[in-house]
UniProtKB/TrEMBL annotation:
The keyword Transferase applies. One of its GO terms (molecular function) is protein serine/threonine kinase activity. SMART domains: S_TKc. Belongs to the protein kinase superfamily. The keyword Ion transport does not apply. InterPro entries: Kinase-like_dom_sf (IPR011009), Prot_kinase_dom (IPR000719), Protein_kinase_ATP_BS (IPR017441), Ser/Thr_kinase_AS (IPR008271). It holds the Pfam family Pkinase. Residues 13-210 form the Protein kinase domain. ATP binds at K46. Keywords: ATP-binding, Kinase, Nucleotide-binding, Serine/threonine-protein kinase, Transferase. It comes from Albula goreensis. This is Protein kinase domain-containing protein. One of its GO terms (biological process) is intracellular signal transduction.
Length: 210
């Protein structure tokens, strides 16, 4: 079992405003007390028992953390630290403050082909890196593609949210039904064996929207 720091996150970080939330997680801005550096704190509610449907299982949290610990790429979010208490696990992540790519697109109304290509290349660079480590994201969608800083001339893309990501073991068949319906590959819907290629279907849908 992976061990996390059994300490109070408040001792090391000042917790600030909410940045977003999901079914069993809330993300808040935080500041490291020792350095003043800003991060994002993802508070994941733990499942209290195996039979419960509320919260995230320890196994799933460990899988997400282990994948995040393995990755280091300019177009993928970075994990800084992990804390745990009785009710939740707290991931301290790189602060990606530029908002969602598609909010940025809505403000621009339209992109030139050159701009769209620039964004798509960054998305593909991130996906290629993950796939080189046999990691499938399985939840590539507009909400999980963020800008590090939207005020610069050429914003950097960051892929976020590895809650559904899996290491693909080519010796073991893996099936699951998850993800966002508009973006998942047919093999997910059909409950067929899944691999890295499932991400490429999602990238295709994103490309069409761009």
């Amino acid at each position: 079992m992976t061990t996390f720091k059994q300490e109070n996150v408040d001792e090391y970080y000042d917790i600030g405003e909410e940045l977003g939330s999901g079914h069993f997680a809330v993300v808040r801005k935080c500041r490291e007390k020792s350095t003043g550096t800003e991060f994002a704190a993802k508070f994941i509610k733990k499942r209290r028992s195996k039979s419960s449907k509320r919260g995230v299982s320890r196994e799933d949290i460990e899988r997400e953390v282990n994948i995040l610990k393995e990755i280091q790429h300019p177009n993928v979010i970075t994990l800084h630290d992990v804390f745990e208490n009785k009710a939740e696990v707290v991931l301290i992540l790189e602060l990606v403050a530029g908002g969602e790519l598609f909010d940025f697109l809505a403000e621009k109304e339209s992109l030139t082909e050159e701009q769209a290509t620039m964004f798509l290349k960054q998305i593909l660079d991130g996906v290629l890196y993950l796939h080189s480590k046999q990691i499938a994201h399985f939840d590539l969608k507009p909400e999980n593609i963020m800008l590090l800083n939207r005020t610069v001339p050429h914003p950097r893309i960051k892929l976020i949210d590895f809650g559904l990501a899996h290491k693909i073991d080519f010796g073991n068949e893996f099936k699951n039904i998850f993800g966002t319906p508009e973006f998942v590959a047919p093999e997910v819907v059909n409950y067929e064996p899944l691999g890295l290629a499932a991400d490429m279907w999602s990238v295709g849908v994103i490309t069409y929207i761009l």
